[in-house]
Each structure stands twice: as structure tokens, then as C-alpha cells.
């Protein structure tokens, strides 16, 4: 019996962490494991239940084979612990907060993965990014333009194996849609 890798992707500010937190209890009740990422940013500034490590520690962990998946984005390194392979091997579903840019590599390693793209209306995304206060207005506008292009390309190139969850409305609606997708009721 093999579990499913559920690969959640979406732009920064789309609400991935909020969705995961809101769905946590219901996902765990279904036997779905949620992975704690390793990131080269302090845990306090990450905004998610991640393990913050130094770039040197990350490089060492990566060289030692600690990660099933790893990538770099926005000047940071991200890793998904190798233990997910053990969980998948015993039949557990495993949900990871992944990277849109790393999707091809994830699909290569886990060809039967369920890919969920979390989207949000551009105006809502702009407000969320402004509220975070991490980037200048010019950086935010650049991020929004890149996100629109990337999302359109991703949907066009991966339509058959990609399910879109719109997180522009109430979070509970997105949680329900997520659970429906896990029950193979996505369309």
C-alpha cells in the first residue's frame, strides 16, 4: 500500500499556512500527515510551523541526504524531510507545502502526487502582501505580475493533474474544497 503525496503550492500570501492550520485537525483525523518544512529563516519569522536553520546547517543536512525534496526560492533554502518516504511507504497520505517552481522535480520523484494550487484574487493578494510589510510596493507589484504569469502558465501546462483552490473567500470554504479534493471529488 502506498500513500499519496499531496503537494500544495501557491504564491506567497495566498494563505497556504492559514489553510493548513485551519484544516489540521480534520486532515489528521483522516490519517493525513502534515510535514514541517526546514527553512533557512528563523522559525519566528516564517509564519508557519517550520524548522528554521542557518544556511550552513541546511547545506549540511542536504549533503547528508536529510531531504526528500529541497529547493531555493527568494533567497532562502527549503527542505522536505526524508521521513515522508517512510510515511508514504506505509500508506499514509502526506501533505507538503511545496514550491511552484519545484513542481516538475516533485512530480518526477512522486509521479502519482495530487497537486493543489492555492490561488487568491490579485487585489486580495496585494493587500495581504502589503500587510506583511516584508517588501516594498515595487517588489510587491513585481511579485503580483510574476504570479499572474506563472499561474496562467502552470494551469495551461498542467491542467489534467492540477486542482485549483480559490482562497479569496472565507477560509472554511477553502478547507471544504481541500477535503473534497482529497476525497477525489475535485473537478
Please tell me about this protein's structure.
- The chain is of the alpha/beta class and 187 residues long.
- The chain has one domain (5-182): P-loop containing nucleotide triphosphate hydrolases (Rossmann fold, 3-Layer(aba) Sandwich), CATH 3.40.50.300.
- Helix content is 45%, strand content 22%.
- The protein is built from 8 helices and 9 strands.
- Strands 2-7-1-8-9 form a 5-stranded parallel β-sheet, with helices on both faces.
- Strand 5 and strand 6 (76-81) form a beta hairpin.
- Helix 1 (16-29) packs across helix 8 (171-182) and helix 6 crosses helix 7 (137-158).
- The longest helix has 22 residues, at 137-158.
- It is globular, with a radius of gyration of 16 Å.
- The mean pLDDT is 87.
What is shown here, in short?
It comes from Pseudomonas paralactis. The chain is α/β, with parallel strands linked by helices.
Descriptive terms for the model:
8 helices, alpha/beta, four-stranded mixed β-sheet, 187 residues, five-stranded parallel β-sheet, Rossmann fold
Q: Which architecture would the CATH scheme give at its second level?
A: 3-Layer(aba) Sandwich
Mean pLDDT: 87
Beta-strand residue percentage = 15-25%
Strand and helix order: EHEEHEHEEHEHEHHEH
**Integer-rounded radius of gyration:** 16 Å
Q: Percent helix among the residues?
A: 40-55%
N-to-C CA distance: 26 Å
CATH topology: Rossmann fold
Largest sheet: 5 strands, parallel
Whole-number tally of structural domains:
1
Total count of helical runs of at least 4 residues = 8
Low-confidence runs of at least 5 consecutive residues: none
CATH superfamily caption: P-loop containing nucleotide triphosphate hydrolases
Number of distinct beta strands: 9
Task: Assign an overall shape.
Answer: globular
- Protein structure class: alpha/beta
Name the strands of the widest sheet in spatial order.
2-7-1-8-9
Amino acid at each position: 500500500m502506498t500513500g499519496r503525496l499531496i503537494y500544495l503550492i501557491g504564491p506567497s500570501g495566498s494563505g497556504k499556512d492559514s489553510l493548513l492550520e485551519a484544516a489540521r485537525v480534520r486532515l489528521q483525523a483522516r490519517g493525513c500527515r502534515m510535514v514541517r518544512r526546514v527553512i533557512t529563516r528563523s522559525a519566528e519569522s516564517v509564519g508557519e510551523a517550520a524548522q528554521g536553520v542557518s544556511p550552513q546547517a541546511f547545506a549540511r543536512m542536504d549533503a547528508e541526504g536529510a531531504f526528500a525534496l529541497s529547493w531555493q526560492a527568494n533567497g532562502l533554502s527549503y527542505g522536505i524531510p526524508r521521513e515522508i518516504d517512510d510515511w508514504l511507504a506505509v500508506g499514509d497520505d502526506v501533505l507538503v507545502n511545496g514550491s511552484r517552481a519545484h513542481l516538475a522535480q516533485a512530480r518526477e520523484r512522486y509521479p502519482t502526487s495530487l497537486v493543489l494550487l492555492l490561488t487568491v484574487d490579485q487585489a486580495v493578494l496585494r493587500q495581504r502582501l502589503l500587510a506583511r510589510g516584508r517588501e516594498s510596493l515595487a517588489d510587491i507589484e513585481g511579485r503580483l505580475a510574476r504570479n499572474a504569469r506563472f499561474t496562467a502558465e502552470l494551469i495551461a501546462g498542467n491542467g489534467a493533474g492540477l486542482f485549483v483552490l480559490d482562497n479569496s473567500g472565507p477560509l472554511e470554504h477553502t478547507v471544504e474544497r481541500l477535503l473534497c479534493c482529497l476525497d477525489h471529488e475535485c473537478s
